[in-house]
Amino acid sequence: MNLQDLKKKTPAELLSYAEELEIENASTLRKQDMMFAILKQLAEDDVPIYGGGVLEDVIGRYDIEWRSQEIATHLVGYLNDERSIIGKEARKHLRPGSPLRASDLISPQIIDRGQTVDLVARSSGLVVNMQGTALANGAEGDRLLVKNLSSGKKGEGLVRAGGTVLSQ
Questions:
Q1: For residue 158, is it within any domain?
Q2: pLDDT per residue over 18-54, tens digit each?
Q3: Which of 53, 26, 61 is CA-nearest to residue 41?
Q4: Rounded CA gap, 105 and 88, in Å?
Q5: Cβ contact 103:126 at 8 Å
Q6: DSSP label of 60
Q7: DSSP character string of 153-167
Q8: How far, CA to CA in Å, does 74 sit from each of 70, 71, 84?
Q9: Containing domain of residue 97, as a range?
Q10: Better-scored residue on pLDDT, 145 or 91
Q11: Residue 55 in this model has a pLDDT that exceeds 50
């Protein structure tokens, strides 16, 4: 099963496919939940699931499969909290069913080099907003070099969720 083909199906086509797979209460499921139920059933039936574009796809709730596993030693660095996974991108190709480490994931790039960004400077209750040009690509939480459009000076800031840069 190609994941991209499944994503392209209409809700009616998904319902028909879910009923073929004998998924219970398929008609009551939302599209995302139905896709998840279909993928889960296919995996249980050992049907290969593949898809292109694994890199640069933002990981969502339905991309995660939780499994219990007995281990001999404490595993360091493996993720066990969906808040650490959802909204991230794979740094490399990930094998289905393999545990994730923090080093396997990156935050999606939200600022492109050369993009005009909003700079925010805060000091003693005073907030100053200005514009600048990003001198590199940046993801949320990255430190980014920015050139202030008014003064021409370069400074470093912290990329925040909406694409603003908090001047440091």
A1: yes
A2: 999 999 998 888 877 888 889 888 888 888 777 654 4
A3: 26
A4: 6
A5: no
A6: -
A7: -EEEEEE-TTS-EEE
A8: 10, 7, 19
A9: 66-106
A10: 145
A11: no
| Phi/psi of residue 74, nearest 5 degrees | -70, 125
Number of alpha carbons in the 13 Å side-chain half-sphere of residue 27:
0
Q: Which two tokens stand for residue 23?
A: 């998924």
Q: At what angle do helices 11-20 and 31-44 cross, to 10 degrees?
A: 30
**Is residue 98 domain-resident?**
yes
Q: Name 121's bridge partners.
A: 128
pTM attached to this predicted model: 0.50
Q: What is the pLDDT of residues 56-91, one digit of tens each?
A: 577 887 777 777 777 666 667 788 888 888 888 888
Q: Could you tell me which residues are beta bridge partners of residue 82?
A: none
Neighbours of 29 (CB within 10 A): 19
Number of domains in the chain: 3
- Cα(12)–Cα(76) distance, integer angstroms: 44
Q: What is the pLDDT of residues 113-136, one digit of tens each?
A: 999 999 998 888 888 899 999 999
